[in-house]
Design brief:
Order of helices and strands: HHHHHHH
Bound molecules: protoporphyrin IX containing FE
Largest sheet: none
CATH superfamily: Globins
CATH topology: Globin-like
Radius of gyration: 15 Å
Distance between the termini: 29 Å
Strand content: under 5%
Mean pLDDT: 92
Shape: globular
CATH class: Mainly Alpha
Length: 153
């Protein structure tokens, strides 16, 4: 993938850091993967990216959303207790840094977060997501997504 090559150089605004500092984030439970397996997480990210595709942050993402969803899924697989597919394939996660090429403001974060939270409705049935770990995962998304905001306003 061409991450950073074109869209990175088009960046117009300086990188923003929240004045209150970066949030502390608690990792979601590694037991989640035992419920979802790889297939459940691929389905979850595929559903999420279909929503992103119809959203107002669509312009930030590459043309092939299914491919982008699979790359993202490898990160969530390792985050939620599965094998380290993302690191093995793409190197260290460094998520804030990987999002620098894209101008992400608080508004974009809200859209992203809202759509992920919607995706999680019925997650036990759809993805085998252990319900006792849903709230922990939601709070991870709420906090960790603040790290990706790199543009003020
Ligand atoms: C919990 C917070 C988030 C996590 C865990 C996350 C995770 C990821 C991952 C794993 C990737 C693939 C990284 C790569 O291409 O090397 C990615 C890409 C991306 N994310 Fe996020 N993200 C988060 C928040 C956000 C937010 C708030 C936005 C704003 C809309 C966003 C926009 C993007 C964009 C534009 C890409 C590039 C897609 C591509 O070129 O394939 N992300 N994200």
């Amino acid at each position: 993938m061409n991450l950073g090559k074109t869209r990175a150089m088009e960046r117009k605004s300086p990188i923003f850091t929240p004045p209150e500092g970066m949030p502390r984030v608690e990792r979601p439970s590694p037991e989640i993967f035992a419920g979802t397996g790889e297939a459940g997480i691929y389905r979850m990210l595929s559903d999420f990216y279909k929503k992103l595709e119809k959203s107002e942050v669509r312009h930030l993402f590459p043309e092939d959303m299914e491919l982008a969803s699979r790359k993202s899924a490898t990160f969530f697989i390792q985050l939620l207790g599965g094998p380290p597919l993302f690191s093995q394939t793409y190197g260290p996660p460094r998520m804030r840094q990987r999002h620098f090429p894209f101008e992400i403001d608080e508004k974009a974060r809200q859209v992203w977060l809202q759509l992920f939270l919607e995706t999680l409705e019925g997650a036990e049935e759809k993805y085998g997501f252990p319900p006792e770990h849903l709230e922990g995962f939601r709070s991870f998304l709420r906090e960790f997504s603040r790290w990706m905001v790199n543009k003020g306003g």
